[in-house]
Design brief:
By secondary structure, this protein is an alpha/beta fold. The protein has 21 helices and 22 strands. Helix 2 packs across helix 5, helix 3 packs across helix 4 and helix 15 crosses helix 21. The termini are far apart.
Length: about 625
């Protein structure tokens, strides 16, 4: 008890003093309501004699219920329930003591007239009065602090006036967190919601004044400079529509987290609010994974080459969801692999085990060491040089890494009896006009070749387009150019590309591995192609600028090896192309090729001169049409 009073603050001592007065005063008032001004003298004496016992019972109950541990400015419905519950328990204890005392007195077991027979209704009245006063003071203080803080907010935070999109649970939670933080991170002014029945109502005093279509008008009327999207249940298409409307206001755009981003009950939603990214504007319906298909990874050892890269690392994260025994990250660059291991260990606590091995896919002896050490059951081959312009300048390095490296990994997978092998390929492998695309087409042919000669490994390739956020993506380039004040450079006004997010691509790759029977080239459904100039314009707007006015967009002309548009399948593959059980994954018909020539040319790579690289690729990929570098 002494330690409690040592820790208690003056504000809580005041609250305790008020409670003492409230409980005793309520009991006196309940008797007065019953007897009026004709209250007997003995009843007045009764009240005075009961002050110590009433105080001890009620205050002890409040302390046990920890009513003095909660901060007054954050009183919630839970605190109200606790106060009512503790008051009820205390009243029941007090009535029981009085009732037993009266019985003992009547039976002359005790010789005292201390216990007076009081009307039962007085106990009920006192219970209600105590609840009224004790709950009232707590709610009054919270309301006072809220009103005072709200006044300061409206006077002093005009530079961050916030609109909330969504009057549901997420929007309410964010408003509450903004309130209890003293509106340090934003001043909510108005709410909009698609449900018209909510219009002209309010949440925590913030009015709901319109629907989504009213966003531009309300943003201008109330001088809004920040908009927070708070509808996690919205479909990807609807979210994109709403964000495009909000983007037209020129306000800073933020988005609340999705439900699956909240990992614990103590997560603060406000800490997970982030800036709207261009990925949110390109989002497509969520990929539905068939967990049964992915069971081939459970309790297995999985090797990911290039596992530290942007796509390889996400592939490791997706694989970890299916409970493999071990994931082996094989990469030539140690820093990213080390960071990935730490993040996976922190999340999964050693199950699966995460191993890192450093080396190059060009070195078949090093690969054999890795396969000998771990004997993986599945291999995902993500290691490759992917940057088109750079590979135009260093074509021989692209061949060594993308062609010879793929051949080496396939050879080891076959030699050590791997069950599943998946190559990550690209749409640039279709009718390639650049070195990188041609090398990936040869890699696809290599996988199909090994599928025919294998001892039992299921070899397959997965072909997809640009992955937003990956290393070499246009997004970081555009962001840096915007940061420098422009101009943003786009090669051609009509250039288009297929895009998907890193998690989406990785999820589909894992699925494809489970669908493979051997020799397939899986093609991922990339949706509709996106104009790069549209991507640049949206990114400029999300950065708070107006395209062509605040930030210029310059067209620089197609680079060597670059096409206006990409294709996902060869013409010869289209006839036999069909969907798998996952409607986001297609299988193309295999195209015949000279396998003896492939073996011969790949074995000759160490003797190849750098200036012979393009001719080497043309021999293996006759339909490639290189755009010569000027």
């Amino acid at each position: 008890m002494n330690k409690f009073f040592e820790r208690i603050k003056p504000q809580k001592l005041f609250l305790m003093l008020f409670d003492i007065i409230a409980v005793n005063g309520s009991f006196a008032l309940s008797l007065f309501l019953h007897f009026g001004f004709e209250m007997p003298h003995r009843v007045a004496i009764y009240i005075l004699l009961r002050i110590p016992i009433i105080t001890v019972i009620y205050i002890s109950s409040f302390m046990i219920g920890k009513l003095y541990n909660n901060l007054l400015r954050y009183v919630s419905f839970y605190d109200v329930i606790c106060t009512v519950f503790c008051t009820g328990i205390s009243t029941a204890i007090f009535w029981t003591i009085e009732y037993i005392g009266q019985k003992l007195q009547l039976l002359e077991i005790i010789n005292t007239d201390f216990f007076v027979c009081m009307p039962f209704i007085s106990y009920i009245d006192s219970l209600l009065l105590i609840c009224f006063f004790c709950v009232g003071i707590r709610m009054f203080y919270t309301a006072y602090r809220t009103i005072r803080t709200d006044g300061k907010r409206r006077k002093g935070s005009a530079n961050k006036r916030t609109m909330i999109i969504g009057a549901g649970d997420m929007g309410s939670s964010i408003l509450y967190e903004m309130s209890v933080s003293g509106y340090k991170f934003g001043s909510p002014i108005v709410i909009v919601d698609d449900n018209e029945s909510k219009i002209n109502s309010a949440i925590m005093g913030i009015p709901i004044l319109g629907t989504i279509k009213d966003i531009p008008e309300l943003a201008e009327k109330y001088e809004i400079n920040e908009i927070i999207f708070c509808i996690p249940s919205a479909s990807a298409e609807r979210k994109r529509e709403i964000l495009e409307i909000a983007m037209s206001t020129g306000c800073d755009l933020k988005t609340a987290p999705n439900i699956d981003e909240l990992t614990g009950v103590n997560d603060r939603i406000s800490e997970k609010i982030r800036d709207v990214d261009v990925l949110d504007l390109l989002a497509r319906p969520e990929v539905k994974l068939d967990t049964e298909v992915c069971k081939y990874l459970k309790d297995q050892t999985v090797l990911v080459t290039g596992g530290g890269g942007s796509i390889g690392s996400e592939l490791c994260r997706q694989i970890a969801r299916y409970a493999p025994e071990r994931i082996v990250i094989f990469d030539i660059y140690e820093n990213n692999a080390f960071t990935l291991k730490n993040s996976l260990d922190a999340r999964y606590h050693g199950a699966p085990q995460i191993e890192i091995r450093i080396g190059s896919v060009r070195d078949i002896d090093r690969l054999r060491e890795i396969f000998e050490e771990f004997h993986p059951s599945s291999v995902f081959h993500a290691a490759a040089h992917k940057h088109v312009p750079l590979m135009e300048d260093s074509p021989y390095e692209a061949v060594k890494n993308n062609v010879l490296g793929t051949y080496n990994v396939c050879h080891c997978a076959n030699e050590f009896g791997v069950k599943n092998f998946v190559l990550l390929s690209t749409d640039k492998a279709v009718n390639p006009t650049n070195v990188m695309g041609a090398t990936k087409r040869v890699a696809e042919l290599t996988v199909q070749h090994f599928s025919k000669i294998t001892k039992g490994t299921k070899f397959a390739a997965v072909r997809f387009g640009n992955v937003l956020g990956s290393n070499g993506s246009v997004i970081p380039i555009f962001k840096e150019q915007i940061k420098q004040g422009g101009p943003v450079t786009v090669t051609h006004p009509d250039i288009t590309r297929y895009f998907m997010t890193i998690p989406e691509a990785s999820q589909l790759v894992v699925q494809a591995g489970g669908l493979a029977k051997g020799g397939e080239i899986f093609v991922l459904d990339m949706g509709e192609p996106v104009k790069i100039v549209t991507l640049a314009e949206n990114l400029i707007r999300l950065s708070g600028f107006e395209p062509y006015k605040d930030i210029e967009i310059q067209f620089t002309g197609l680079r060597p090896g670059e096409k206006l548009y990409e294709e996902l399948s060869l013409e010869e593959e289209l006839d036999g192309r069909h969907k798998t059980q996952n409607d986001k994954i297609f299988v193309t018909a295999p195209v015949s090729f000279d396998e003896k020539l492939l073996e011969k040319e790949i074995n000759n790579i160490p003797n190849l001169k750098p200036n012979e690289t393009r001719e080497f690729l043309k021999r293996l990929v006759p339909n490639c049409n290189f755009r010569e570098k000027h």
